[in-house]
Amino acid sequence: MKPLFLLFTSIILRNNVVKAQPPCTNGHTNTDLSTSLSAGLYYIDTDVYVTSNITITDAELLIAGNVTIYVQSGVTLTLKGVHIYGCDEMWQGIILDQEAKIVWNAGATHDNTLIEDADVAIKLYPVASFPYAIYYYDWAISAGINVVDIKNTIFNRNRISI
């Protein structure tokens, strides 16, 4: 009979979701995304409302469980070579309000943007709660406006990506 060796790590499996053990926020600076961010380690622990155009470049964003990033009407959120992920729970994702846009692509240091551990990584304004939304996105497509401009982006371990 062969011996059985088990290796225990800091991973717990609950409800079929792999969860990292704290302290995963060590070395991260808390942010509310009120301004553009450059390379660094950042942590978001409450819902965030992006109310002006911001660019995040070559940064790591750790998102607390059940947190949502709301991109307000007329605002563009640009991510370049950013890694967004959850710590010990899935975060809710990014919701685009009416006429909001996202632009994601490679950064100066990192070749890809990486979005992980979101319930719904990108969600357009809920059509059921605001019927105009369906018309805006139809119009934007017909007018050649890029509401969602995503290049060099990897979606991983999200329940729904877009």
List keywords for this structure.
single chain; 162 residues; mainly beta; 6-stranded parallel β-sheet; 4-stranded parallel β-sheet; 7% helix
* Fraction of residues in H or I helices: under 10%
The coarse silhouette is: globular
What is the element string, with H for helices and E for strands? EEEEEEEEEEEEEEHEE
| Adjacency order of strands in the biggest sheet | 3-4-7-10-13-16
Count of DSSP-assigned helices: 1
Tally of DSSP β-strands: 16
Low-confidence stretches: 1-21
Query: What's the rounded overall pLDDT mean?
Result: 79
Number of domains: 1
Quaternary organisation of the protein chains: single chain
Rg over CA atoms: 18 Å
Content of β-strand: 35-45%
Which structural class is indicated by helix and strand composition?
mainly beta
Distance between the termini: 49 Å
The biggest sheet, with number of strands, parallel, antiparallel or mixed sense and barrel status, is: 6 strands, parallel
